[in-house]
Amino acid sequence: MRALRHLPLALTALRALLAPVMVLLAVAGPSRAAFGVCLVVAFLSDVFDGILARRLGIATPKLRRLDSIADSLFYVAALFAAWHLQREALLEHRAALILLVVLEISRYAFDLRKFGREASYHMWSSKLWGLALFAGFFSLLALGRSGWPVTAAVWLGIVADLEGLAISVVLTRWANDVPSIVHACRLRDSGRG
Asked: pLDDT tens-digit profile of 71-83?
């Protein structure tokens, strides 16, 4: 049972360790099948690390922050791979991608300034964005095509970042696991956020 308690952290670490694999695949030997495997393993690890951590009673703020960091590392690596291999598909979305990057940086800077650390809200909109990111990168890297999955991933990212920024504005102190702006308002009004 004790070894089981390390499984959520191991799944989170696995996702972070897949980031350099994605970069290496893009640079040294692109393989659609290998990208597909990496993306599926990363997606499943992201789903099950949180489920297991909650079931085992070890879903701490530190583990949730590590989960967010692992997500960021993996998807930055996936973005590098997509840029390296499917640049034209990304350039079709350049204005929205620039907005998304600006929002990501702004959110991080705002949270760091206001709370002294990055946010780890695990919002419902972020979960939806995670699903869209998987679909978008799978489409680009494993199937070799763009289309609506990529468009959806970009725009859902913008929506999630706008909601995350709104939550950070609303909260008076740092909190983790805030599912939506509605929950943030309730936390603030109750004096717990």
From this structure: 999 999 999 999 9
pLDDT, tens digit, 9 for 90 and up, residues 96-122: 999 999 999 999 999 999 999 888 888
The DSSP code sequence of the chain is -TGGGGHHHHHHHHHHHHHHHHHHHHHH---HHHHHHHHHHHHHHHHHHHHHHHHHT---HHHHHHHHHHHHHHHHHHHHHHHHH-HHHHHTTHHHHHHHHHHHHHHHHHHHHHHSS--B---HHHHHHHHHHHHHHIIIIIS---SHHHHHHHHHHHHHHHHHHHHHHH-SS--B---SHHHHHHHHHHT--
* 136 phi and psi angles, rounded to 5 deg: -65, -50
Residue carrying structure tokens 């692109």: 30
pLDDT of residue 1: 60
Q: Which two tokens stand for residue 72?
A: 């960021």
Q: What confidence tier does 33 reach under pLDDT thresholds 50, 70, 90? A: very high
Among left, alpha and beta (phi > 0; psi -120 to 50; other), residue 88 is alpha
Give helix 32-56 / helix 61-85 axis angle, nearest 10°: 170
